[in-house]
Amino acid sequence: QGCSVCLLHPFVSVAVGSQLSLSLPPSLAPYLPRSLLAGASELLRRRSSRMESPRDVGGETMERGERPERAEPLTDAEREIIQNTWGPVYENCEDVGVSVLIRFFVNFPSAKQYFSQFQDMDDPEEMERSVQLRHHARRVMGAINTVVENLHDPEKVSSVLALVGKAHAVKHKVEPMYFKILCGVILEVLSEDFPECFTAEVQMVWTKLMGAVYWHVTGAYTEVGWVQLSSSAV
């Protein structure tokens, strides 16, 4: 609590994911905010001469039947850290969610193909004014809130994320790599907007949570027999 909110500038292009030499499971490295490399007080900002595609993120794509390594379960202390730091974020859930989606769509425009309401929007300011984008931002943040509130109940978390994964695989046909990218963007936004709360230790714990989220979502894709689409990652 007491964390000040300084919403990110949506025009800054930040690369998501990197190969790190830290002592983490390899499956978590692509989620790790680059602030952990440069120090908790400053994120590494890089402007690219071209727009990055999801294939540039962590050097991985999800092949048919492939799943990341499952992370260790959260400890009681880690669950408490997540819930304590989530409170100030959720108080500003719509603005934070909009910032996340704007960065996501600006840096990875191919993700917009799944959203007919704003897939033709290129201007971040226009995205910010979009009622549909704000509605989806609230849904994303609401889903995270459900996970955070039920960290004491792993079965509930698993069932919620399974529903999310299956809906996106069967109904929306979203490639699972976009969940990986979105997890990375969420971590970057939280560490930038709430620097007092999201210290290096806290970021490590949230990285572990996002790794678990991605693991459950990809599990749902595997269960429905997901077949990777080759064209939408371009």
Automatic annotation (TrEMBL):
Catalytic activity: 2 superoxide + 2 H(+) = H2O2 + O2; Fe(III)-heme b-[protein] + nitric oxide + H2O = Fe(II)-heme b-[protein] + nitrite + 2 H(+); Fe(II)-heme b-[protein] + nitric oxide + O2 = Fe(III)-heme b-[protein] + nitrate; H2O2 + AH2 = A + 2 H2O
Family of this protein: Belongs to the globin family.
A GO cellular-component term linked to this record: cytoplasm
Protein location: Cytoplasm; Nucleus
Keywords per UniProt: Cytoplasm, Heme, Iron, Metal-binding, Nucleus, Oxidoreductase, Oxygen transport, Transport
Alphabetical list of InterPro entries matching this protein: Globin, Globin-like_sf, Globin/Proto, Globin_lamprey/hagfish
EC main group: oxidoreductase
Metal-binding in keyword set: yes
UniProt EC number: 1.15.1.1
Function of the molecule: Probable multifunctional globin with a hexacoordinated heme iron required for the catalysis of various reactions depending on redox condition of the cell as well as oxygen availability. Has a nitric oxide dioxygenase (NOD) activity and is most probably involved in cell-mediated and oxygen-dependent nitric oxide consumption. Under normoxic conditions functions as a nitric oxide dioxygenase (NOD) but under hypoxic conditions the globin may switch its function to that of a nitrite (NO2) reductase (NiR), generating nitric oxide.
Subunit (UniProt): Monomeric.
Region feature (Disordered): 47-72
Location of the Globin domain: 73-222
Signal peptide interval: none
Protein name per UniProt: superoxide dismutase
One GO molecular-function entry: oxygen binding
Lineage: Eukaryota, Metazoa, Chordata, Craniata, Vertebrata
Pfam families, sorted: Globin
